[in-house]
Specification:
Blueprint lengths: L1 H15 L8 E9 L4 E3 L10 E8 L2 E7 L2 E5 L4 E3 L5 E3 L8 E9 L4 E12 L6 E5 L4 E5 L7 E6 L2 E6 L3 E5 L6 E8 L4 E8 L8 H54 L12 H4 L42 H7 L16 H6 L1
Parallel strand pairs: 1-9
Antiparallel strand pairs: 2-7, 3-4, 3-8, 4-5, 6-7, 8-9, 10-11, 11-14, 12-13, 12-15, 15-16
Length: about 350
């Protein structure tokens, strides 16, 4: 019984992999998503010991080869042949779009399988963005990415609009509480967003409130910067005035110091009396009742008199004469008469 089964299986395999051509020759269309991996599976094919070599090509370019249970050729790391003959393409890009062909050969080199795949790439849809306005009761659903997608809008679980465009605009009848759902899908992806809108008749639009708050913040920042600028300008002006005053003071002091040793010709002194020469010693004013002592002489004991010769006054200069006429006459010093020489000796 086992022998009969083996003979029947061998007969079927020989018939299945006949030398008349490939076992299968089909054209298969496959859709892939950009930036994702994909497997090109060979339908109704199983690896056996009779299949020795599997080759994959893109157009007329060979990209991978699998022989005797291992990879023997690989154009780049993007392509990989699995043990069951499937071609795996990693991280799909636009350059991977095109026609792929697989050929299987037995140990005798006969082509026992030939398949063709047409790979089309689609961009996955992005998550829909829902926005609304309580002022004009308008709702918007929008997607930014996607290829061959369909956009649907649901109100309280019931579909109310669908479109193949990127934007759906819905005009609401009232501002009552409502639940909305927006769905975007294509052959390779699907995304959706949901929102519950609560608007009152006297309520403010969320965008209007955001605009007011944003404008207030901008105005506050502007006023703060303006106040800071004005205060800074005042400090700079005050500092500049102080520096100018200090420079002027130093300049005046330096000018006064330069004028003291050399008076400017023709200038009038502030104190006229200070510019006149001092009077001679004999004409200095003295307090009443005070007798000036003769300089250079010690006081003598009582009973001795010293004869002083009257000193002649120097002729007054015109300047001193004019100066003396302004005040009272100065008192003359008392001169004692000179005693006879004999009387002094007798005493």
């Amino acid at each position: 019984m086992n022998l009969a089964c083996k003979l029947l299986a061998s007969f079927l395999l020989i018939f299945f992999f006949s030398s008349k051509g490939a076992v299968s020759k089909k054209n298969i269309t496959i859709l892939g998503a950009l930036e994702r991996d994909i497997n090109l599976d060979i339908p109704a094919f199983q690896m056996s010991k009779h299949v020795e070599d599997i080759q994959w090509s893109k157009g007329k370019t060979k990209i991978a080869k699998f022989k005797n249970g291992s990879m023997t050729f690989q154009k780049d790391k993007t392509y990989e042949v699995l043990k069951n003959g499937t071609l795996k393409i990693k991280h799909l890009e636009r350059i991977h779009d095109g026609t792929y062909k697989v050929d299987a050969y037995d140990s005798d080199g006969k082509n026992v399988l030939e398949e063709t795949f047409h790979l089309s790439l689609l961009e996955m849809v992005s998550k829909p963005n829902i926005s609304w306005s309580c002022t004009n009761t308008t709702l918007t659903c929008e997607v930014t990415k996607g290829t061959d997608f369909e956009l649907k809008l649901y109100l309280n679980g019931r579909m109310i609009q669908k479109s193949s465009r990127k934007v759906i605009v819905y005009k609401r009848a009232s501002n009552q509480i409502a639940s909305f759902k927006c769905t975007a899908n294509n052959t390779v992806s699907e995304e959706s967003s949901s929102v519950v809108i609560r608007c009152t008749e006297k309520g403010l639009d969320i965008y209007l409130i955001s605009g007011i708050c944003g404008g207030g913040i901008i105005l506050f920042v502007f006023l703060a910067l303006l106040i800071f600028y004005i205060s800074k300008r005042k400090k700079q002006n005050s500092r500049r005035n102080d520096e100018e005053l200090e420079i002027r003071a130093h300049k005046v002091i330096s000018e006064e110091r330069g004028r003291k040793p050399h008076q400017i010709p023709g200038s009038t002194p502030l104190n006229p009396a200070a510019s006149q020469p001092p009077p001679p010693p004999s004409h200095r004013p003295q307090a009443p009742g005070h007798r000036p002592q003769v300089p250079g002489h010690r006081p003598l004991p009582p009973g001795h008199r010293v004869q002083h010769q009257q000193q002649k006054r120097p002729a007054p200069t015109p300047g001193t004469q004019a100066h003396q006429q302004k005040g009272p006459p100065l008192p003359r010093p008392r001169v004692q008469p000179k005693p006879p020489r004999g009387a002094t000796e007798n005493s």
